[in-house]
């Protein structure tokens, strides 16, 4: 049985937006002693460090390092950035060596950095870690599938090419024609691709004309090539097929490579996806890759609402540092409740003009000793807003104001 290695926590100190040490737990409900969570969704405003967390996981396990990653330093600080990870290996906790970057000598007026690169060796041999950045896309070229790419390179280098699904299938089909031993591999590749394309594609077939052999995807509107599919679907398929190929390579003797253990990091998993698919993507990936731990970032409340068993992680800016908030129960919330919560910075679900009028109405209701003109203005607002104000009476608003004043801050 192949060992399962998932992440249990990561601590970051003096890393980009993280100043004082912050720990994120990849466990059920974010509890330090909780069971390792399969789904972990990281939320936060732009610049709060969502992508930094994903990159930190790669670096702490010894999966990526180059000179440009000295940019991990916290701006205007000479304290060494430090990253610590704890993994869960088949139910047992494994604390990884600390990864840190230190200042070295001055060269041409600038500091030269070095890294303690012994990190991650305790689990690296057993851990299949793959990561995808927001600029992911399948290549339109036909690179050799024998060339091994770094599994996390796409997260660090924008535009780093991913596997072309057409090329993978054609290579497997060609190998099957040349050797009966490869037929089983081809059948599994095609079956896996059909599963990944399920929903928009009802069949996959290769056809040869006078000049070349191409793969055609059967849709409800006819046969199309990969580049003719919608952008959202291509963006999703690009990383899913690349990830599936990694599982095939890692577990060549498995009858179902997609069910083998792995960890997948995806930046902006909701990128270009239709709202309908945003609501089903987590369930689809859970069923397709049942033994994979997903750690993803998102900007969509639909992703949060659909993540029934997910560990929700909120990164908040406090002063000039990022703070981690976990343990939020939002599974039964409506979309408007999620949007107006701290998870998304209290965004109003009403049009800006309506929200401005609502705020003015609240201010007038809470004001003692309104003038005659202000009473007329309030009456006009009540008429314009109609039923939107039904749950916000003057008494209710003043009672809420008193409660807020009494709460500790």
From TrEMBL:
Span of domain ATPase AAA-type core: 217-304
Domain Rad50/SbcC-type AAA, first and last residues per copy: 9-97
Xref: InterPro entries: ATPase_AAA_core, Bact_Antivir_Def_Nuclease, P-loop_NTPase, Rad50/SbcC_AAA
A single BP term in Gene Ontology: double-strand break repair
A Gene Ontology molecular function term of the record: ATP binding
Pfam families associated with the record: AAA_21, AAA_23
Entry-linked SUPFAM superfamilies: P-loop containing nucleoside triphosphate hydrolases
Full protein name: ATPase AAA-type core domain-containing protein
Organism of origin: Spirosoma montaniterrae
